[in-house]
Amino acid sequence: MSTLRVEQLDDRVVVTLRRPEARNAINAAMIGELHDVCASLEQQPRLLLITGDGGTFAAGADIGELRERGRDQALQGINSRLFDRIAKLPLPTVAAVDGYALGGGAELTYACDVRLASPSAVFGNPEPGLGILAAAGACWRLRELVGGSVAKQVLLAGRRLDADEALRFGLVTEVVPAGDLLKRAHALLDRMARSGPLALRLTKLVADGAGHPLTDDLAQAILFESEDKRVRMDAFLAGGRS
Ligand code: COA
Are 104 and 69 in contact, with CB atoms under 8 Å apart? Predict the structure, then answer.
C-alpha cells in the first residue's frame, strides 16, 4: 500500500492514512487502497480503526485531482461510494482524529461509527470555498450527528469545530491527549470486541436504520437462538460480569 499503513490483527484492522507530502489528502490511490481494506473486512468481518499519520487526520480530498474532475466523475461518486461502503462495514468503525479532518477527511470520519479526538482536532467542510459541494456525506451525515443548526454553520458558514466543540456537540466521544489517542481508541475497540460478534453486527445493521421494527425482530430472532446468547446469559446469572 502506498498511501496507507495497514495492521491486520485478529479482531481488528488498523489503518493509518499516510501521504505526508499532502497532509494525508485523499487521492485516487488512497481511495483504491481503502476499497481493498473494505473488501477484506467484508470477507472477514473485524473492527476497523482509522487514523492519520503526522498530526493530521486528512486535509480533504486531493485538490489537485478534484480540479481535473468533471461531471462524469462527480456522478461516479468516487468518495461517497467509498464512504458509504465504510459506513456499511459489518462491524463497528472508529476514527481517531489528531489535527485537521477537513472536507473529504471530515466526511470519512462522519462515515465511521464513533470518533475520538486529540485536543488539536479540527473538523470542517470548506468545500464551498473551493466552488464545490461537500458531496460525500457531510450534507446529511453531519446533520444526523450534530443536528441541523450546527451542520449548517459548518456547511454554509465555514465554521470549523475544534475538539472541545466537537465533544460538546456529540461529534466525538472523548478528547484525549494526542499521545494517548490510539491507546484510548484501542480500549474502546477492546470494549466492542467483548460483545457477541453477531450481536454487534446485527445491532449495527438495525441501528443504521433498516426498516424498523421488522428488522429488529428478525435480528433478535436470530440472536435468541444463538449459543453465544445462552452462554453469556448463563454467565451473567451465575454471577460473572463483563
Ligand atoms: N489536497 C492536495 N494537497 C493538499 C491538500 C489537499 N486537500 N491539503 C494540503 N495539501 C498540500 C499543500 O498543497 C502543501 O503542499 P506543498 O508543500 O507542495 O505546497 C502541503 O499539503 C502542506 O499543506 P500546507 O497548506 O502548507 O499545510 P498547513 O499546515 O499550513 O495547513 C491545512 C494545513 C490543512 C489547513 C491546509 O493545507 C488546507 O487548508 N488544506 C486544504 C483543506 C481543504 O480545503 N480541504 C477540502 C478539500 S475538498
Answer: no
Q: Which atom of ligand 1 is nearest to the CA of 62?
A: 1
Q: What does the domain layout of the chain look like in residue ranges?
A: 4-193, 197-241
DSSP string of 8-36, one letter each residue: E-SSEEEEEE--GGGTT-B-HHHHHHHHH
The third-level CATH classification (topology) of the domain covering 4-193 is 2-enoyl-CoA Hydratase; Chain A, domain 1 (3.90.226)
Atom 10 of ligand 1: nearest residue by CA position: 22
Residues 169 and 150: beta-carbon distance below 8 Å: yes
Atom number in ligand 1 closest to CA 127: 48
pLDDT digits (tens, 9 = 90+) for 71-101: 999 999 999 999 999 999 999 999 999 999 9
DSSP per-residue string spanning 153-218: HHHHH-PPEEHHHHHHTTSSS-B--GGGHHHHHHHHHHHHHTS-HHHHHHHHHHHTTSSTTHHHHH
